Amino acid sequence: MTLTQSLLIIALLIAASAFVAVAEISLAASRRLRLRQMADEGDPRAEKAMKMQEQPGDYFTVVQVGQNAIAILGGIVGEGTFSAGFAELLAWWLPAGSAHSAGSVLSFFVITSLFILFADLLPRRLSMTEPEYLLVRVLRPMQLCITLFKPIVWFYSRITDALFRLFGLPDKRDEKITSDDILAMTEAGARAGVLARREQQVIANVFELDSRTVSSAMTQRDRIAYFLRDDPDPVIRARIAEEPYSTYPVCDGDIDHVVGYVDAKDLFQRALNNQPISLKDGSPLVHKALIVPDRLTLAEVLDQFQQVHEDFAIILNEYSLVVGVVTLNDVMSTVMGDLVTPDDDEQQIVRRDAHSWLIDGVTPIDDVLRALNLEEMPHEEEYETLAGFLMVMLRRVPRRTDSVNWGGYKFEVIDVDSYRIDQVLVSRLSDDGKTPLPPTPPAPELPPPLHTGVAHPPLQSPQQPAAGRENPTPSVP
Fold it and tell me: Which residue, of 10, 59, 61, 165, has the fewest CB within 10 Å?
């Protein structure tokens, strides 16, 4: 065999090995969602590729047979192609025996390097970047190879299947996509700039609906504006003017005896028409209220809203005491975050500088973890808010200037209103774990404000209503 013929055979073997490598990696790396998208766009090859991913046994058998056969042939042809030439060249400087040995080693190195570079590394890395594009193009030749080598494929596939059954190993790829998979993809998209960071946060918030309880988005009890059933007309009108919300609970005697709710637009219509306003028994203004327990998740509350066609609910605890109210807007604000929050709205997490935050005590602990970039808090199952964290850590009702050091941060109570923790100053600690870092100017680019909607303060006009805020009458039991 001449040198030209040997070189041609080696080039063909490298090309065949590269094709096999592309076929192997492209099938393994192809994303089923992308293949489904290609199939929906009218590419029939993508549908065949998905079927091949479901049963890849014969496919990979051909791949392995081809790789091993090519490697053996490459060694045989390559050794005879370059060994003699290298030996003759090295004979000018080395004895004949040493030149022959060195020529064989050098020939092995050259052939191996060619196969590693052009038949392995290059095609495999290319297949990782565009797996679906390459898979649909190599699939038909691979199916032809499966047909041509059917006896060999059948023999090795049956032995492999028997070994899988013997060791109890799974022989099919799990194609289930979990919420963690989706969140990982959106996070990767946000890092790559394909997905906006705010959009990624909205998607993450959607998946939190099943884990966050309704109390993390409700208006707290002490911020609820409500009417008593026997309130006279002037009191009702004064309350509407003072606290213009979309919905008001109607109670009998106190806030823990809710008899229904009244819609603000009905009250405004009567007030503008100078008609009397009465909420007594039989009043058409009072509607039956949806009552939900405080252990429901936000996803379950959405289901309740959908079933009864309501967008307002009263939340009770296990002692049948009212702990808050929630609206459909509250739940949607939890999902959308700052995308739907007015810029001048009161935020529950305010970054003061690069090392400190001012946080409302009723802020959900999940939002605190996200803002501080922490993985977990101690005893998380015992509380849901930052105030609850401080109570659990201190083992008593916190007072002003009380503080807790944990996770590299100092949590200091700044303001307390009738046992309610209004503001907490969170400061990053220095390396000694005791001294807060000095204030510094904020970083040029800060992450987008996190939604921390537990309670919604009253807005300044009827065009931006909310449900619930401070009311001096009730107090938390």
Answer: 165
Structural domains of the chain sorted by starting position, each given as residue range(s) with its CATH number in brackets: 3-167 (no CATH), 214-337 (3.10.580.10), 348-428 (3.30.465.10)
pLDDT band at 339 (very low <50, low <70, confident <90, very high): low
pLDDT in the model for residue 331: 87
Question: What is the rounded distance in angstroms from the CA atom of residue 187 to the CA atom of residue 193?
Answer: 10
pLDDT digits (tens, 9 = 90+) for 289-329: 999 998 898 999 999 999 998 889 999 988 889 999 999 88
